Predict the structure.
Amino acid sequence: MKSDLRIVTWNCNGAFRKKLDFLQEFDADIIVIQECENPSEAKEIKYKSWAKNYLWVGENKNKGLGIFAKQNIHIEPLNWENGNTKYFIPCRINNEFNLLAAWCHGANSPTFGYIGQLWKYLQLNKFNLEKSIIAGDFNSNVIWDKWDRWWNHSDVVRELEELNISSVYHSKYNEQPGCEQNPTFFLQRNLSKPYHIDYFFASSEFHTRILQFEIGTANKWLGISDHMPILMVVDMKGYT
């Protein structure tokens, strides 16, 4: 593996086949995309040709979760327990660390929608999360915690911290959950409705290796998606 690994997560807000070129500036080795088409069922030749090294999951061929990697990156799918949660893709990157891609879905669940899906997934897979990076759209923030619910955003953050996994954004910017100054999502693409709901969480050993962490800005990306892409660059030199 080269010394620096460039990872992007982005909810593309659909029609990813038409938005590939916008990500070229990141020169990402690995791209985690929410709301993207299944390449195996897509008709767009350019998209099918571009997506040569990928994993994808979803029930709607036009709107699922995908991991796309450069040809020199080995992505090995991992057979983790799913429990019918939506949507997660666990994989092994170059046999060095685990990457868990996430798009926390409502899943038509009256009790465990969105962050509840991640909470349930964690209960099944905590023992798998050593040396891991979690990337994706959680559709959640501590501001939506409910006092009588045991699977709040705060509960998920606490359980991850018990595994020595924490938010890269909050570590870098020294901000408390719920007080984020840099939004990742604008509801209905409205600048007056900013929220921080997309994340990179990583095991403690990665935090000292972060070379760059960048959230896209609304003036550049809001015309393309209601979510901003996030780039994380990790120094992998000497990592074992």
